[in-house]
Records
---
Amino acid sequence: MSKALRLSEKWFRRGLWLVALAFAGFLIGLGGTVVENLPRVEQTYTTENFIDAAAAKAARAALANAQAAQEEASQKLEQLELQRQAAHSDVQSARETFTNWLATRRATERAEQDPELLARTRKLDELRAAERRAQARVQEQQQVQLDARQAEQRTRQALQALEDAAREQLEVAWRQQELRVFLYRLALTLPLLVVAGWLLARKRGSIYWPFVWGFVFFAGFAFFVELVPYLPSYGGFVRYVVGIIVTVLIGRQAIVALQRYLERQRQAEQLPDSQRREELPYDLALARLAKSVCPGCERAVDLKDPANDFCPHCGIGLHDHCGHCRARKSAFSKFCHACGTPAAALAQAAPSEG
Ligand SMILES: [Zn+2]
Ligand SMILES: [Zn+2]
């Protein structure tokens, strides 16, 4: 990856990768805060936003009335029930007294007691009538209570119907809101991805490459990671489709780059040996030599072999002899390691060497 061989340059590059990561980290933090604050653009809906307000108000008032009426009817019914029980026990005790009295009278058979018999019978009848009236009042009140309960049920059902209709509308509104929020986020993150793609394609070789890579990390993270919790059910499709498109673009780029590289190599291998050596960047040539590959064609060569002066694959010169002291040296060295004579001066002085 790294083409730099100078020690400081290597460390500067590592430092610049840290700059890229820090830049990405801060951008992600900022982007995350912005995305998090997006839902506040939308209001939070409840069923109250969709219910028929006038009808709901009337239904709720009717419900409260019916509940109050039912409560009142129950209380009255309790009172009347108590009164009926009192009347019933009056009748019970009067009947007992009368039965006892009648038994005594039969035993004594006293005729002068007939008017008293009539009076006692009448008294008992009156008590019975009072009990029947109490019973009737209880039944009347039971009817009132039943009416109140049924009225309450009806208003409750009406209110329920209103609320159900509102809930359906609420769910529709929720789905639309979810879609809108998702589209806002997509509208925010997709252009980032496009910009990142453009930067990667055109500017990654610039001296400001740490910022390019920082932005690319940020855009990728924002689209493929931060968007995830806000995806509606079908949002996964969007992510995968964009992922496929990005992969195809990068893959195509890589394939084209490989073909271009092979073509460049093929053309370079047809150039004269000295020109090829001059066109190769010095650090790149040294890096390839360090890996025991030919700097020209990148195929493996045995550099330790003292007879190996040319690459057997592409013919580029690997070793030559110093024009001043005749020491065998690397053809890519800029100076003779034995006497320090510049290689360029030698090339001019003895161009046929090598
Ligand atoms: Zn070669
Ligand atoms: Zn020399």
Note: Residues 294, 296-297, 299, 311, 313-314, 316 surround zinc ion (ligand 1) (CB under 6 Å).
---
Amino acid sequence: MIPAPMPSPRAPSRAESTFDVAVVGGGIVGLATARALLERVPGLRVLLLEKEAGVGAHQTGHNSGVVHSGLYYKPGSSKARCSVRGAQRMLEYCAAMRLPCRVVGKVVVAVDVSELPRLEELERRGTANGVLGLRRIGPEELREIEPFARGVAALHVPGAAIVDYRAVAESLAADLRTRGAELRVSAAVVGARREAEVWHLATASETFVARALVTCGGLWSDRLATLAEGRAPDVRIVPFRGEYWRLRAEREDWVRGLIYPVPDPRFPFLGVHFTRMVGGGVECGPNAVLAFRRDGYHRSSFSLRDTLATLSWPGFWRLASRHLATGAAEFWRSYRRAAFARALARLGPPVSADDLLPAEAGVRAQALQRDGALVDDFLVVETKDSLHVLNAPSPAATASLEIGTELAERAARAGLIPDHGPRPRT
Ligand SMILES: Cc1cc2nc3c(=O)[nH]c(=O)nc-3n(C[C@H](O)[C@H](O)[C@H](O)COP(=O)(O)OP(=O)(O)OC[C@H]3O[C@@H](n4cnc5c(N)ncnc54)[C@H](O)[C@@H]3O)c2cc1C
């Protein structure tokens, strides 16, 4: 058990500082976790290390900005639990901090009758997960809500919202500093060693000492776990680039809020959609193509190390052999703007290639098992002195405040921090 935070026995030197907990990764999950640790144990000496020059530089700053409502996730899963509570908390947080946020509502459209059974399953899941205001609607009502959407039926989630997760991350970082945490950017952890009951975390220029370690490394989460534990976890991160287009300004009135297709349960992240962005404009996408670099935001991005990491994982070949056609179709849509436009036009708005302008891409960190199965739920691995977040795909941005609270609770239960009992969620 780790003792309650005490004044440091010696002043931290520039070369070596002592902390109760080090959180590695300044994405929204790491930031929310550091904040939740401090909420649970005020005065805890928390260090957060981020390799980029600013927070939220990867998935957190390259996503659709949707506050998901909890429609898609298996009842009882951590995704379901954390997204429903987390969405509410995210909206409250944005309101309290005056961050950009708009409730725009979402429709999930069954384009033809073959999609009705899957729509029903979504409705069942959403109801079981307690999604507020969820309603099945017909084609007429769909047109009243989204005049350009077309389908045989749809689900309407009136409370779905859009935010700017990078702004949320920056706000969480400011909040952490105010609460006394040490936040270092441009501080990539390149070495981690457990010795004499403490972690020694090395960056290129400094070594930090912390009693407990929580890693939230997103696209690099498997590598961080390997660095700390000396052996690779049972999953590998495979990066999938999500490419977006933007509707030309004169076409933006085709979309009022969020228009989604019915997802394929085997690949919940597939299926391009329309998203009205909180900063203005309408984004279309994302698709999902294998990326040859973990931070591969462009088609030409390539890293030999990252590519070999994917290709040497048996699970990748199992996944690829089972779903070759799906993967090929995604690549086709990536290179053919007209094919991308056709996938969007299925949902109703009469999009053609000329209506689409290029927009920034994102890269998803998806944990893949050795047997080729995609890890569906959030995955956290606990060791005696550390917690490693190994899978935090969508809706982890929506759910981040709740994930942080659950991780802080878990850290307390595991004895990584003093257990002062749960504190009210803010
Ligand atoms: C295209 C796309 C669309 C999405 N849309 C949505 C959406 O609409 N709604 C939603 O809720 N979710 C969405 N998501 C998912 C969401 O963005 C992620 O689930 C969430 O941002 C994960 O946060 P994270 O902190 O785990 O990861 P990240 O934001 O990737 O942060 C991990 C951080 O760890 C740092 N790091 C890694 N290794 C080290 C190291 N060695 N030393 C120091 N730092 C390190 C990285 O630099 C990075 O900043 C989307 C994701 C993508 C890619």
Note: The radius of gyration is 22 Å.
